[in-house]
Write a structure and sequence with these properties.
disordered C terminus; 4 helices; mainly alpha
Amino acid sequence: MVGAANRVVVGLKTACLGAGDVVILRDRGHNTLLFDDEVAGLIIDRVRWPAERTNDREDGAGIEEAAAE
């Protein structure tokens, strides 16, 4: 997550780690990202995504079975 109005970490390239997905959010600064509803939603979706993908497995294995593999 990158706040385009961030004044602590200046520059979009500086704020990106160089690996993984990058989401740039307009009109948000460094601390604003901590309390932003859209940011929270994006993080929750990203955390849930692997679990949802595991639940959709064709062999019917759930999270517990997949974790044991």
